[in-house]
Amino acid sequence: MTTMSETDTPILSVSGLQKSFADNHVLKDMKLDVAKGEAITIIGTSGCGKSLFFKCLQDLIAPDRGTIKINGQNLRDMSTQKRKEYENSRSVLFQYGGLFDSLKVWENICFLQTNLNELSKTEARQVAVEKLAIVGLPADVCDLYPGDLSGGMQKRVGFARAIANDPEILFLDEPTAGLDPIMSNEISRFIAESVSALGATTISISSDLNTVERISDRVAMIHDGRIEWDGPTDRLYSSGNDCVHQFVNKLADGPITVGI
Question: pTM of the full predicted structure?
């Protein structure tokens, strides 16, 4: 588990982040520091704002107020070149894979690199083979199409694409959504092992507590537009926080109210 001393600059630092839509104040005062190499998962009830917060961190949605700093630099103040460098240093595993049905697996994995002319087709296919090996898939999968793959294999290919650029920051959006419990455990295992080997900083959102426990050093829970609790994963069930206790134990009664 990566820890951060008082003198370390967080790879990602969020302060006073706010985002509203008309009178709906979704993110009210978000604060979060993430150390380099750390694996943190964000949890919370449906509609709590975790997906919105996730998009703000990726610079897909601009917050109304507050700051997001990457390696000490305010994302809003970055030059075009620095912002491009940030875009190239991060990657995303989409909830449902996000693979292009008309492209072969190797073309999906290295889609960005080939379109930016960073790799020849021969080089791209070799990179795809190497990344597939990391997620436990053989080289001959390269020439298949997404439609030829099971849901679990598609998730693995999606992860192989997410690590194709050896990212510094890896965003995982519900990495085990739609998978059966056995496949979910398997995907969680190789994510944890692969991320550790890559040394990437991982920021995830997940509704599956088993996945949260397997892929995270640390957990942060969003409630009422703020980080309600932030602590080590091994304290998730002994947090001492009423909201976390209600959430992880799936209790109807507690401080969290959910409209139906």
Answer: 0.89
